[in-house]
Write a structure and sequence with these properties.
This protein is mainly alpha-helical and 64 residues long. It is 81% helix and 0% strand.
């Protein structure tokens, strides 16, 4: 019924499922928690990974 009213969802479902993998929300929270607890090496490494994920999202959006 939603397909009849809103149109086909075929195009955005694979795009959304691919983007969910790149969302760095939980890793960002973990890295800030580790940095706050004084674990600088692991928090910094996790924060760098989050930064790379954000850059990948930005690059993908600009490319599309």
């Amino acid at each position: 019924m939603a397909d009849a009213y809103l149109g086909s969802f075929v195009h955005w479902i694979p795009l959304a499922s691919g983007m969910v993998i790149l969302l760095p929300g939980l890793s960002l929270v973990d890295s800030i928690e580790e940095l706050a607890n004084g674990h600088l090496a692991s928090g910094g490494a996790r924060m760098a990974g989050v930064g790379v994920a954000f850059l990948a999202l930005i690059f993908g959006v600009l490319l599309a």
